[in-house]
Specification:
Layout lengths: L4 H4 L3 H16 L4 H4 L16 E6 L2 E9 L11 E6 L9 H11 L18 H14 L11 H12 L4 H8 L7
Antiparallel strand pairs: 1-2, 2-3
Protein name: Tyr recombinase domain-containing protein
GO molecular function: DNA binding
Keywords: DNA recombination, Membrane, Transmembrane, Transmembrane helix
Length: 179
């Protein structure tokens, strides 16, 4: 789907913005509402600009720590840090490299991590509308895909790679046994 972004989304900055949201959502098993704003009142409940820390080893980007102050099933109300590893063998689809490019292109220093270049937060509506266009472009039925599809796809992919059900539940932060 990411490879088709230039065919559907004309602005390069929007391509980068959507690419990183898609990659982070999939690789981190995230709910779209944990990354982008659903309502104006939820701007403080999504991943914030200051809550990412890149890790380096001998000058090589190794990963990123994403700290979430609010997650759906976090009953402790303490921040939760999730580490995403770089994918050196797949730089074009690496969430860490793409996030690094994003924060160096979009220079804001506070508020939701995902903002347009004018400082306006990215809405879930914007992301899902662009996602529908992409899904239609690649010949699939957009009514069968939602913002939650990244999370479901991540779990399905992990299962196909042989991950245990318990590990998938841990990675996806699921409290129930419903996978």
């Amino acid at each position: 789907m990411i490879i088709n972004l230039p065919s559907v989304v004309t602005l390069h900055v929007h391509q980068l913005l959507l690419k990183i949201i898609f990659l982070i959502a999939f690789n981190g098993f995230f709910r779209l509402g944990e990354l982008v704003v659903r309502t104006k009142q939820s701007t403080g409940r999504v991943l914030q600009r200051q809550d990412n820390l890149f890790t380096w080893e001998k000058g090589i980007l190794k990963g990123v720590e994403l700290t979430f102050r609010f997650l759906k099933n976090n009953k402790t109300n303490k921040p939760v840090t999730i580490f995403l590893s770089a994918l050196p063998s797949s730089p074009r689809i690496c969430p860490v490299n793409t996030l690094y490019a994003f924060v160096n292109t979009f220079k804001h220093n506070r508020g939701p991590l995902f903002q347009h270049t004018n400082g306006q937060y990215v809405s879930a509506h914007f992301v899902t509308e662009q996602m529908k266009k992409l899904i239609t472009f690649i010949g699939l039925n957009p009514t069968q895909y939602k913002g939650h599809s990244f999370r479901i796809g991540a779990a399905t992919n992990a299962a196909s790679l042989g991950y245990s059900e318990q590990l998938i539940q841990k990675l996806g932060r699921w409290n129930s046994n419903a996978l």
